[in-house]
Amino acid sequence: MRLLCHYVKVWFFVGLAVTAYAAVTASALCFWTRLTPPVAVSLISAGVAVVTGLIALTKDGIAGAINSPKLKIRFFPYDKRDCHATAFRNTQTGAIVAKTHYFRVRIENIGWRTAEDVEVTLEEVNRFNDGKWILDTGFMPLRLLWSHWRENRYEIAIPAAAYRHCDLGFVLDPASISPPFPPVQDDQVVFWFDVFLRPNTGRTSLLPGRYQILLSAFGKNARRASLKIQLEWKGLWRDDIDALYQEGLTLTKGFESA
Question: Where are the domains of the chain?
């Protein structure tokens, strides 16, 4: 399907060019009997030159439309490559300081050119209350971290037909020795979003409840893509991530949002 869409775009623009040349030639031929051959040839040549000039001026835009990158956010909550048990370690000794379960999304480039300076944003969090979704104003839009990437930049390049993992969030073992973040708030295990910077105001963690999360990804040369993920967090910790899924956490594959 990806290859078919690409060829459709190519032949569409080729068809436009052929139609433009044919229209110029046909117009001149319609008046062939009223014009002398040198004049008719000159008009055809001028028309072809105009069409060629327009193609030359718009070739970058046409090439961009055909070969542009296209981002897509994918979520596979029960794939162990995307969501799995791991641990925070002491950077000097290597000792485990906190067990954790990490949850990630895939940012895929299904286009034909490298997507440059791509970043992922946690745009909004909605909580299910009294039978309806209500925007939680305690969350502000924040950039998420790329997996295994802790540099001072939150942008990354994604080649065509490739994807990169982005950290959505994590939960920490409440029995951790020295966790990087408090595993428990109000005597309940919390779900932490893995954001680039944590603001002094607002929240970046979830208490038990049912939520709808809106994510977006965009780049320097790639249009915005978005995904909504439904999450029900029960505030439980289990050492085994499969047991956590069965008893403490329900993640629903997201759906694309306009």
Answer: 2-67, 71-255
